[in-house]
Amino acid sequence: MQFLSKKDTPLNEIVPNGYIDIHSHLLAGIDDGVKTIYQSAYILEQFENLGIKKIITTPHIMQDVWPNTSKTITNKLKELKEILPPLGISHIEVQASAEYMMDDLLFNRLKNNDILPLHQNYILVEMSTFSPPLNLTEILFEIKLAGYTPILAHPERYSFYRNDLKKFDKLKDSGFLFQLNLLSLSGYYGEDIKSFAKKLVDLDYIDFTGTDIHNYHQLGVLEKGFESKIAEKISHLMMKNKAFS
Ligand SMILES: [Fe+2]
What we know:
Elements: E1 8-9, E2 19-21, H1 37-50, E3 52-57, E4 60-61, H2 70-83, E5 93-96, E6 99-101, H3 104-111, E7 122-126, H4 136-145, E8 149-153, H5 165-174, E9 177-181, H6 182-186, H7 191-202, E10 208-210, H8 216-224, E11 226-227, H9 228-238
Parallel strand pairs: 2-3, 3-5, 4-6, 6-7, 7-8, 8-9, 9-10
Antiparallel strand pairs: 1-11
Bound molecules: fe (ii) ion.
The site of fe (ii) ion (FE2) has 5 residues, from loops.
């Protein structure tokens, strides 16, 4: 596989100083991410070794599947932060927000002013990888009305947009920012998503990056890095996350 090639540049060689990861699933047992708090700690220790300065972890909030509340998330964050210093993990800063599925539950949360923003007024949102929500315009309206700027998680994974970049132009014009998964550029989700990710990078569609890490396997893939010919570009792109300082 491509990401095992000797020509690859490992992630630790390209992580910009002070990198902030804005997408991960590192609160144990509340979504499809890590299963135990020690798995979180191990990944955070490796992130610290990579030179990552801060993570804002983003458990799923999804109606019927993972209807997490702001309280379940902040409680889990508190538990995690308590075990880090005794384990000697003290440099990486850990915060929590959420990855909001654009569904009816998000409507309710917006109406009740029960949102955990990523940073300032940014919120991370996703849609199904099978089809966009029918009421996307309405959802965007509600997000903006509540005063938030949506960052669309992993646009490169929505294959229904692959041959229709005009729809992406429309999303950007209407106010979405785009967050690319570094794992997409590793080839983790397959060659089609990798090449679409590269195209979006080349065409300057990407505002921010994130790992979207869920487990040890993905950590291994991330650490192996990227094809050398795109490594420099990725490093440059990763600098944009300074906006979350
Ligand atoms: Fe995610």
